[in-house]
């Protein structure tokens, strides 16, 4: 009957201690021929181990609830899987495995009576104490809960063309995928072994902690008698106990009387800050009408303040989650990405403040000089350069014979506005050092603040260029449109608005005459308008790219995956990017097994003669490794943002807009900043939620409880208390 | 039906448009199957081992090593990184003082700006270190676990560590052969349809071997990946 089903899978930790004494292999049995080895218990009787596992002797003194293990590993109990280094003569259950290991043997030799071929999958156990773990999917550095909410927002903003385009493309792709599904002819029902994979990943994560627990409790299973202690040992023991009691008593005093007061004060301060933050956030997010832009959508500073406040609101919640992690087994890996995110944002803010202090003290010390430089730059580039370029355009630039009257008119108009604007700037000049001083002072809140402020200052101080651009673009666009429709008239056609097409039309002679004259006139005036338009469009593009540089700087300061990169260098196993298998040669495996006296069948070579039970073994080794997250995945968000910017500004659509004088819409701030919000939840926790969360933290008392238990007088009360809290956590 | 025609879809064209074909040697297929439940299919441009190949490889490796060391030495000489006791070492000193080396130092010296030389030396170092001669792509099939694709690229940018992707069996919707237009030819290639993913996974994406190889791999995967019971029923039915 075992003919076709006799394929066995053994998961084996490579870092299991290798000894050649007799032992019992303990682990999970995921299905009949799918076993996961946790530990080898030396020098014990298999029967005793079986009963001990059933009544839970081996999981006694566990620091956390044992049910959690079974729940996450997906099995109801650990089992005896087989025997290690036992002679063939011993009768065993047919589903048990026989393992031969030893100090010189890297890979164990596994045999099983019921299996005709075996997959041994070796893995290195991740250490939960160091927060290493493996996972099937790459660790998510960004918070994944806001996909939906952003999609929700996009129809509201409406005008975003590329967003719409992207949605259409996605929809198309979805339909293709639907079609693809029809190609699969039949749906296979996955076997038990295939379905076990997610469970097995959990079991690998738990392997280290469980082995420690089992080995700690081995002494409880009878066979070894405990040696009684000598007098000196007893003296040492009682001395250490006395010292520990003393320390504990002091610690207890501290945690009981001092710590709660400090904690209370801290929570109070935190909550008052939270109220202030809530107030500010409401101001920043307030919109006159739902469609209108809020303050944070207009100004980079407001946006920056908002990001910081949001982070501030989110930190206590994150901290609470991380604290609750301590109350659970170290092998529960769900909160590890949270840990990385929390410390990443803390580190970024600390970095930001450090850089900010340096920058701020520099700006404050040199505020007059900086102010002078800035006003010089302003007058050179936004006033004088503009004036000179306009005068150049007015006098037949580059030999281009423009219409002098129109050029004079337009140039005078713009020059007049620039004059007015420069007088405004002159008014501003004495105040500028104070503004600069203020910016420098603000940078003590982080280097991102002055950058955001400078970005805003830039947009305020170049308002005139923006308005020139708008005005000239509008004129140019009108003229172009009129020219197009007159050209249709010239050809005897017209644009049918109802059907959106070009129809032929019978014009009267006078209509044609006037139209043609107007067409000629406007056509000859067009170059003059074009040069003015181009001038301002280029200036506008320069400002936009400058602001893009500021924004990139901001996003680097706010979102750089610093902590993740540090972890990648320090301990790559903390950033799992998936798993990988490696097929090992069975060649050296055979060589290793051959020189043992044990009759390990060296039949692993004859793998082509299959399925005869007399040839019990074809062994195969794979190594399971956790691959670290690659750098591309770490900077995924940046690539996305770069893509978005590129798509928005370097698309043919924008070039067309520029050519026809349509307004080039700036990239939606929300789109650009989705990167910065990717580490924040879509909806921030309210004040009350935060209050609950902060108060739900277990009191530090409970950690001391299990050790204080020996104090007989109040031991009972305390342990009761401890038990209650534990079940609550 | 072994080959399911499903061409001209944007999905596939996206996956294929930036693949390069290695012209200098047609890819080979090697199969490693230590047990019926596991198989590894390797497609590589490395020609089958022969004496000339081995000699060529050895000479190339020595050349690379020499070039690497010379670039390193020149770099350290120009930036004067080596402390005096090292340069005066009896083994190193004759080499540093030898006329060819001095000529090299003079050649890469002052008229060439220091940063340009440093950049060139670093580029040479990197190329010597990371240049890969062959492209190797693997498909590992593990019954009960899933399949894994891995790619090591040719050239400077192909990394030494293979880029792997593991797909659990539960997630595999189907494995099939597809055809697509690529320039003026039709290519057959193996794809894995993954549950809940928009992109299909192309196996051997860089080499895109010929149909004969692809079919052999496809048959092997079908035979190896699924348990015998299900497969048998499928064939009978």
From TrEMBL, chain A:
Signal peptide: none
A GO term, aspect molecular function: transferase activity
Protein name, per record: N-acetylglucosaminyl transferase component-domain-containing protein
Keywords in alphabetical order: Membrane, Transferase, Transmembrane, Transmembrane helix
Biological processes annotated in GO: GPI anchor biosynthetic process
A cellular component annotation (GO) from this entry: endoplasmic reticulum
Membrane-spanning segments: 248-267, 346-364, 406-428, 435-455, 475-491, 512-536
Short name of one Pfam family: Gpi1
Coiled-coil parts of chain: none
Region (Disordered): 147-169
UniProtKB/TrEMBL annotation, chain B:
Family according to the record: Belongs to the PIGH family.
TM annotation in the entry: 55-75, 114-133
Organism: Schizothecium vesticola
UniProt KW Transmembrane keyword: yes
GO molecular function per UniProt: transferase activity
Cellular component GO terms held in the UniProt record: glycosylphosphatidylinositol-N-acetylglucosaminyltransferase (GPI-GnT) complex
Annotated Phosphatidylinositol N-acetylglucosaminyltransferase subunit H conserved domain residues: 139-205
The entry's keywords: Membrane, Transferase, Transmembrane, Transmembrane helix
Pathway: Glycolipid biosynthesis; glycosylphosphatidylinositol-anchor biosynthesis
Signal peptide segment: none
GO biological process: GPI anchor biosynthetic process
Name used for this protein in its record: GPI-GlcNAc transferase complex, PIG-H component-domain-containing protein
InterPro entries named in the record: PIG-H, PIGH-H_dom
